[in-house]
Amino acid sequence: MTPAEVGRYIAYMHTAEPDLRKRIAAIGRKNIGQPYVLNLLGEYPYELHDNLPMFSLQASDCVVFAEHTYAMALSQSWEEFFWMLQRIRYKDGVIGVATRNHYTEVDWNVNNAWLVSDVSALLAGTDAPAYEMKIDRAAFLKMRHNTASSIPVQLSQEAYVAKDRVASVAAQLQDGDLVNVISTRGGKFWASHVGIIVVDANGQRNFLNSAEPQVREESFEAFFARTAAREERNGKNGMKLAGFKFLRLNDHIVVPPAAPQPRPGPPVAVVPKATATVSATAAIKGQAAAIR
Fold this sequence. Notes:
Blueprint: H1 3-16, H2 20-30, H3 62-73, H4 78-89, H5 104-111, E1 116-118, H6 120-124, E2 130-135, H7 137-145, E3 154-159, E4 161-162, H8 166-169, E5 178-185, E6 188-199, E7 205-211, E8 214-219, H9 220-234, E9 240-249, H10 273-291
Antiparallel strand pairs: 1-9, 2-3, 4-9, 5-6, 5-9, 6-7, 7-8
Helix pairs in contact: 2-3, 3-4
């Protein structure tokens, strides 16, 4: 679809399917078959550290797919969708590489608590497994985006549902719930993939997600099989599936206003190199004349 067509589709879906959960599932399924492309979006033209655009209707990666689906389901026009997308994608809706929700567990999930709530510990029970995270955003931004920041290091402990417990809790999942796939390698755990829960006509809870080569709806059994095949290909040093974090779509969603966007500073006068050289030479001559 073109942006104009998406605008009309969003308005239609808001009326045709008033139930938000079902609308999320319907819009997500509309993208089945969409090509998967990693590292798809950026802040261009708001920031110039890369030339990646702020939205894509032609392709998706896992996060882009989830964000676009939620934003469309919560909106009634193209303009509202574009604003909602930035509200979901950035801390307080402030566009910038430093405010983008880079880390799923401690950025995306936390900054979008108005949209979803982490129910992993509740589902897993009193013996819920957990992992620790050490987040150095300043080092990440410097290394990946050549952006300086003074964000302090953060420590976090994250509960999750072990993969062998998913079948026992699946019936409690609902359309529109968010899924974080938790992987492990070398003793470290992290959310390596995301997607959305959809319920099929038989009541089965499926995983709707964007992964190579395209968006697909699959059972958790099919996802386990696909992951196991990848782990076998990658060998003992590759990442392994540990389990999932599940985040419940909130029943009463109140979208908070975005924080004020920081205004750019005043323009800096740039003196052409040749002019600067002439001016410096004239100044030296003037100083010499004064000494004489």
